[in-house]
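Quick one: structure for this chain?
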Amino acid sequence: KTESNQEVANPEHYIKHPLQNRWALWFFKNDKSKTWQANLRLISKFDTVEDFWGYFLPFIKTSSGFSPGLLNNDGIEPMWEDEKNKRGGRWLITLNKQQRRSDLDRFWLETVRF
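Got it. Here's what it folds into:
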């Protein structure tokens, strides 16, 4: 408290914690009449722990009803045609409908926490 008896804000409550890289969260619309690139939708970009969880938690909560998600470094589009991703890879997890309802959110969370 200050001399005037006011609460002093703890800097930890408003200082954001930077990530080593800026990231982009995408989803894939899966419209078979469109190209891969036309189906990609950028949800958001973030570079702090707090912003990551702010964008990612709502995504996780809806992912079991959501199209495939992609998490890439900013500036690298999630497609082989991007020169920076030419030698990249992907993790593909195939789930049956029951698993999508029960396990998909947990799989996403465990993957990004890795």
